[in-house]
């Protein structure tokens, strides 16, 4: 396995800057997830590490070696694309073993690796089929398997699960995590799906418009977002935001809420509170249930309060109905405060 270091990386495509002065260190053996909305540059960044996109300036180091100008074949990486990119005339076994055969790996070792990965990805019965005989989900599993059979220093995944159905996506996500724990390989994974990011990552890199907004463990990024963008991007439902101010007595005041705070800040702020930090049934605040969304093992209740709608997660057997007047409380120890102008965490 290898580490990956990006130094002052800039990428410009067709005259448009995509990545700007980006610095990032991926540690040996970690599962790093690049997370962000479509068009934020995360796939472009991944492809530059693979050598598929030229950088404008800066350096890419893999395993301590400068690979900025190296061919993709020289970088010691295994790549899984969003599209399947399979050879249509080859069987599943031939597609998975192609890179090993080209590199001269002994036949017995090829068979061992292919059989192991095929078993893990539920491809055992499909090894003699060609891509045209497979479903979309099966094709993507073959593409993942083709990368995993390689003894690569770094594995790169470009939204590999996006074409799979929900059940298989959950299963493969779990298998990828188990694989990483077993092998300890360095993995860099691109997704816009926050569930994938939170469940897979050792660390998450949240990106916006070609720039890194925050790097941290899933817990850090979720509980202590660096700015309002990160706070709003993570979470389903997303964080509730309420504009107001903290007065001289240290109390947050807005038309919707009045809360005691111990934040050490004063003046105009945006209060951010996760839905699970709002508890219905007990507390000093009151509101009206505007909408209830059943989610199986929990409900999302939307509370109308002072012209503001707040989402709350309701668990257990508590029954809430639209139009119901409720008391609720907010766990002020877990709220976030953001600067109204910059959006940065205070």
UniProtKB/TrEMBL annotation:
CDD domains: ABC_MalK_N
PANTHER family from the UniProt entry: MALTODEXTRIN IMPORT ATP-BINDING PROTEIN MSMX, MALTOSE_MALTODEXTRIN IMPORT ATP-BINDING PROTEIN MALK
Source species, domain of life: Bacteria
Protein name per UniProt: ABC transporter ATP-binding protein
Listed InterPro entries: AAA+_ATPase, ABC_transporter-like_ATP-bd, ABC_transporter-like_CS, ABC_transpr_MalK-like, ABC_transpr_MalK/UgpC-like, Mo/tungstate-bd_C_term_dom, NA-bd_OB-fold, P-loop_NTPase
GO cellular component: ATP-binding cassette (ABC) transporter complex, substrate-binding subunit-containing; maltose transport complex
Source organism phylogeny: Bacteria, Pseudomonadati, Pseudomonadota, Betaproteobacteria, Burkholderiales
SMART domains for the chain: AAA
Pfam families to which the protein is assigned, alphabetical: ABC_tran (PF00005), TOBE_2 (PF08402)
Signal peptide as annotated in the record: none
Keyword Transport: yes
Keyword list, A-Z: ATP-binding, Cell membrane, Membrane, Nucleotide-binding, Transport
Keyword field contains Acyltransferase: no
Domain ABC transporter span(s) in chain numbering: 4-234
Single GO molecular function: ABC-type maltose transporter activity
